[in-house]
Write a structure and sequence with these properties.
single chain, 251 residues, mainly alpha, elongated
């Protein structure tokens, strides 16, 4: 097991700061599954905080599926890959050295591509006039800024947010929220890479029209093709980064 990198807490919210440090240690492997956490008293001393802050942080770690406490057995680290939820995704995206975990980034894009066609399908089946009107309006706004990739990126996210609303699927809504939060951390990196997808106004218009008509098959087909366009570009970028990293290691 790697040495723990705990440090005195200086932030305003002590419980938040304790949670951040301990969760980072767990997620990035400094505390492997099955590892026993130090006692509350020891954590208080190591982090220079009061017991209330430690207890609140441990409670949140348990809720996040990162630790479990048993009577008489202390508190141990769980295998978060089996016990945690999508809320952990954004934390996994960046390594301790602030570089992007390429496998996590790829996973985000794969999940996005898998969810989008079905979200569009359900929206076409269930959307109300308010949603269809908003989708059409977003397409108009996109058409007014054909070369502004940053604006198109924001509008595209709003477009998909509206599709999720129209799908009336709470599981997709919560998953989308987690994916969007994670994606937001990569927006500046991805805006140029996904330019072809963002500029594909015809596809956004086709999806909006399909939703308005209740044509779930067309909505599914166009959404899948649109996602594949953007995903292919991102996969190429990730492969290039991986190849560059490997070349540096081999040098």
């Amino acid at each position: 097991m790697n040495a723990m990198r705990l440090r005195p807490v200086v932030r305003t919210s002590l419980a938040d700061a304790v949670f951040e440090q301990l969760s980072e240690e767990i997620v990035h492997g400094a505390m492997a599954p099955g590892t026993a956490l130090p006692s509350e008293r020891a954590l208080c001393d190591m982090l220079d905080v009061n017991r209330g802050a430690v207890r609140e942080a441990l409670k949140r770690l348990a809720q996040a599926g990162l630790i479990a406490t048993s009577h008489g057995g202390g508190t141990r680290v769980l295998n978060f890959r089996k016990t945690s939820s999508l809320d952990l995704l954004s934390r996994l995206l960046f390594r301790p050295d602030d570089t992007v975990d390429l496998d996590v980034a790829r996973s985000v894009m794969e999940m996005r591509a898998a969810m989008a066609p079905d979200i569009a399908r359900l929206c076409a089946r269930r959307a109300d006039p308010k949603v269809t009107s908003r989708l059409a309006q977003i397409v108009v706004e996109m058409s007014e800024k054909p070369d502004d990739l940053v604006a198109l990126q924001t509008l595209a996210l709003d477009f998909w947010d509206e599709l999720v609303t129209g799908s009336r699927n709470i599981a997709y809504r919560l998953a989308f929220n987690s994916l969007r939060h994670t994606y937001d951390q990569l927006r500046e990196l991805l805006v140029a890479v996904m330019g072809d997808e963002l500029r594909d106004l015809a596809s956004y218009r086709s999806i909006a029209d399909a939703v308005r008509r209740g044509d779930d098959l067309s909505a599914t087909h166009v959404a899948r093709a649109l996602m594949e366009r953007g995903s292919a570009a991102v996969y190429e970028l990730l492969a290039a980064i991986r190849e560059s990293d490997q070349a540096k290691e081999d040098a």
